[in-house]
Specification:
There is one protein chain. The protein has 381 residues and is mostly helical. The chain has three domains: 154 residues, no CATH class; 121 residues, no CATH class; 93 residues. It is built from 18 helices and four strands. It has a two-stranded parallel ribbon with strand order 1-2. Helix 6 crosses helix 7, helix 7 packs parallel to helix 9 and helix 12 crosses helix 13. The radius of gyration is 48 Å and the shape is elongated.
Length: 381
């Protein structure tokens, strides 16, 4: 049976505190694509991702986006995270390339009692993930049973209670009858629950109020919109029956069950409220705007490109305009200079012409003097 280990790789990356900042930095560089890939993935609402704190779920979804982006665009961000998060383990597994590997020895070396279950499982996940890269053989496959059990556990909806569906639970009728015997409501809000709890254990309620004062948060206000239905109570009774049998006709057994239910109900109120907060967060956080923001950023980029092209065109036209002005000015200056030279030449020619005219006049007068008028009385006297 082939198993897709994507979600286990995501879990491992998210569990390593040494690469928290790296996950954030890589995600922010590719946030639009990574967000869309994660959001459209079948693992986006997987119990491994959604069953933890808000911070855990956010980090897992970002890691999921990074892993899926690497698969599509053949990037190596995931490998970079593995190399940094499990540096020594990575180098050791790399040294065993095409060799035989002993899982027990690795776990003895790279797992410590101080590590959480997620951190320990992450080491096993890395051994499985990197096997495809380094092609090593595993001689003690039985020591990978923790991984196989974890996979099967997850395939069974990630929790013991989910292995049994209330609708198909063989003793669900007993749960229903028990609830009818203990309670007379169809649904209950937290205010009604507090009143019931006050009647059962007033001292415990008073003590809880002191805790609320310490944190300056009040459960009645936090849980005012949360209700438990009949089925919610039936399922809580089922959880009790899965670990301990009871006699429906035994007052002592019912009192023990009621004591369990009163505290189990409070836990379920709180879990429902936290799930509601997480749901509201992911429906309204900034990432829900990523698709629109990406579209707007692309529009801005297109406009910037057009603006740059226009600026280049304007610069070219300015250059051409300056060039033409320069050429026109130079041409005009040349023409003026030419005309000035021609003007000087003509003036010179004119002066020479006038000079020649005077000289010609003198010559003409010399050669052709004017006739003297002689009176008769001077000739014949």
């Amino acid at each position: 049976m082939q198993i897709d280990i994507t979600v286990f790789l995501v879990e491992a990356l998210a569990s390593n505190n040494n690469i928290k900042k790296d996950i954030e930095e890589i995600y922010q560089k590719n946030k639009y694509k990574a967000y869309k890939l994660a959001k459209d993935s079948e693992y986006y609402s997987h119990p491994i991702i959604t069953s933890g704190s808000l911070e855990w779920e956010m980090r897992c979804k970002k890691a999921l986006g990074i892993v899926l982006l690497d698969l599509i665009e053949e990037q190596d961000n995931t490998l970079t995270l593995i190399q940094k998060g499990w540096r020594s383990l990575y180098k050791h597994l790399e040294s065993k390339k095409n060799e035989t590997l002993n899982v027990e020895k690795i776990l003895t070396t790279y797992v410590s009692p101080k590590q959480t279950d997620n951190e320990i499982f992450a080491v096993v996940t890395m051994i499985v993930v990197l096997q495809n890269m380094f092609k090593y053989e595993i001689e003690d496959k039985e020591n990978l049973k923790v991984f196989q059990d974890r996979v099967l556990f997850t395939m069974n909806k990630h929790s013991e209670i989910k292995k049994v569906d209330f609708d198909t639970y063989s003793e669900k009728y007993i749960c229903i009858e028990t609830r009818k015997k203990l309670f007379r409501f169809n649904s209950i809000n937290f205010s009604e629950y507090s009143h019931m709890m006050n009647q059962f254990n007033k001292k415990a309620i008073n003590s809880l109020e002191f805790i609320e004062d310490l944190e300056e948060l009040y459960i009645d206000n936090l849980l005012e919109d949360i209700k438990l239905t009949k089925k919610d109570i039936d399922e809580l009774i089922m959880t009790y029956r899965l670990s301990e049998e009871y006699d429906l006709n035994s007052q002592r057994d019912l009192e023990k069950l009621l004591n369990y239910l009163l505290y189990a109900m409070q836990i379920r109120f709180l879990l429902k409220a936290y799930k509601k907060v997480k749901k509201q967060f992911f429906e309204n956080n900034s990432e829900t705007m990523y698709v629109e923001l990406e579209h707007l950023e692309n529009q801005v980029k297109d406009l910037q490109q057009k603006l740059e092209q226009q600026q280049k065109q304007i610069a070219y036209l300015n250059y051409e305009n300056t060039k033409l002005k320069k050429e026109y000015k130079e041409g005009l200056e040349k023409q003026i200079s030419k005309l000035e030279r021609e003007n000087i030449k003509l003036c010179t020619q004119l002066e020479e012409g006038l000079k020649n005219k005077v000289e010609l006049e003198k010559l003409r007068n010399f050669l052709f003097p004017e006739k003297v008028e002689v009176k008769d009385d001077l000739i014949y006297k």
